Amino acid sequence: MRLDKAIESSMSMDDATWARHANPWSFWTRVPLLALLTLAIWSRVWIGWWCLVPVAALIAWTFYNPRAFPAPERLDDWASRAVLGERYWLARRSRPIPPGHARRAMILSVLSALFLLPLAYGLWVLDPWAAFAGAALSSVFKLWFCDGMAWLADEMARESRTPAGASEGQHS
Question: Other C-beta atoms within 10 Å of 132: how many?
Fold first, then answer.
């Protein structure tokens, strides 16, 4: 199983959950999670094992977040289109996406993941520059990935001559 599909499966993302996750509130309240998780882990310096409380709360929020908000009435918001594009990205084996989008998404995903290494190192040795630069750069590449996903959703909607989110786009 591919890593992206394994992650989707672990989050129990069914069609209804994806529809709710397309709510911009769901998207934007996930954006700061890596920085907050970094801070929560770093807080072990100040509060010891009590740092596990905010870490556990952030992990719980990560799993609950896609279910926390109602499905949006419209899907033309950038964040909604990014989520729709991610659905296309995850379904790329059964419904191919343009090669340029696939290549860009892979490169940005790898770059985002690579910056988790200095983040982990910084948390391990308590180097704030490595930890927070790693978190910031990983997040930048993830947001750039999301921008590509919004672009992909727009292009796939044009290809199928349906508005973004109509028929298979909203709940596929």
Answer: 18
Residue type, 64: Y
- Tens digit of each residue's pLDDT (9 = 90 or more) over 48-91: 999 999 999 999 999 999 999 999 999 999 999 999 999 999 98
pTM: 0.83
Q: What angle do CA 164, 105, 81 make, to 5 degrees?
A: 20
**Residue 68 in contact with residue 54, Cβ under 8 Å?**
no
Low-confidence ranges of the chain (pLDDT < 70): 1-11, 161-172
Q: Report the b/e string of 12-37 with b at 16+ CB within 10 A.
A: ebeeebbbbbbbbebbeebeebbebb
Alpha helices in the chain (DSSP H): 3-10, 15-21, 24-30, 33-42, 44-47, 52-68, 78-90, 99-114, 116-125, 128-159, 168-171
150 contacts 87 by C-beta, under 8 angstroms: no
Numbers of helices and strands, H then E, in the chain:
11, 0
Positive or negative torsion for Cα 93, 83, 31, 78 = positive
Q: How many CB atoms lie within 10 A of CB 136?
A: 15
Where are the domains positioned within the chain? 3-171
